[in-house]
Automatic annotation (TrEMBL):
Pfam families: PG_binding_1, VanY. This is Peptidase. PANTHER family: D-ALANYL-D-ALANINE CARBOXYPEPTIDASE, PEPTIDOGLYCAN L-ALANYL-D-GLUTAMATE ENDOPEPTIDASE CWLK. Residues 268-371 form the D-alanyl-D-alanine carboxypeptidase-like core domain.
Amino acid sequence: MVAIARSSAAASSSASRSASPTLRMGARGAAVTTLQNQLRAAGFNPGASDGVFGPKTLAAVQAFQRARGLQVDGIAGPKTRGALSSAGATPTLRNGARGAAVTTLQNKLKAAGFNPGAADGVFGPKTQSAVQSFQRARGLQVDGVVGPKTWQALNSAGVSGGSGPTLRNGARGEPVRALQQRLNQLGFSSGTADGVFGPKTLSAVKAFQQSRGLTADGIVGPKTWDKLGINVQGPVTNPGGGGGGRVVTGYVNGQPRRISLSPVPNGKEMRTDAAAAFNRMHAAARAQGITLKVNSGFRSMAEQEALYRAYKNGTGNLAAPPGYSNHQGGIAVDINTGGTGTSTYRWLANNARNFGFVRTVPSEPWHWEYRP
């Protein structure tokens, strides 16, 4: 009887393992079809569900892994398959959707300080507007569609603590709107959540700070964000260049855009939200004996034009055309890594993503961008 029981258990374990085998490029069969269907349900396009693990399925697996913070190796092993299984509980949602997943979404939006209306399981205009406001505040693509990245941001929005750019009376932008919505949710009336930090918002901030034992100065800095309990990103315009930095004309995909800059080490600047994240990363690295020396941050049009001329005439490094460098948008930073074999580079490779930074140019180990 004991032998039979052991044999049965072994067979069950073997069947369990075979039900979700490790899959990689070139694999074929029903398990691949299941994988492709799971990827599609999670909002990633693997191509046709034909049971063939080809280039499109590989790209979809890698995109899913990247979105879930997994090792991006394109291999669907236990961790990736497990994450795909759990992703079924958070399907892609858009205007018109109905059901329990929509109710979950609405409750998470409320917890993050965004008002979707009643948690009735119906994805209508109010829920769509709340999703768009949340995406805008978190620096995501503002499409009103709740896919993997928006779910991931919503799931992290409820954790203890919070962060955001420094805000004060006169500030404008989506972070201000998120602040106002959170204050209103917590019972501190800041008036209409219009993205303008005026007298009512100032009074609400001071009342909140006083209730939490903070210095009631009306300035929303790291300690106040921490007590508010939400994580907010996005460009903000602060008055007079104080606290949130000076306001300049930056460029994103060739289009001029007013952005607020704040300082990072070595006398450089980045967009205010990117600077706040970089300074946190710099402090974390320093605590582990690593110094992140900044060689380049925000660039003016004149600076980019000079670099591009040098690149074109063969006397300088690769440079994007003026108006198209992410340095001009304030989100790119060049760090003195000393190549890919140094302790500085290894630290960045292992930790930068935790602060929203990723390496985006394969030939430039020093170039990192803020893409939370």
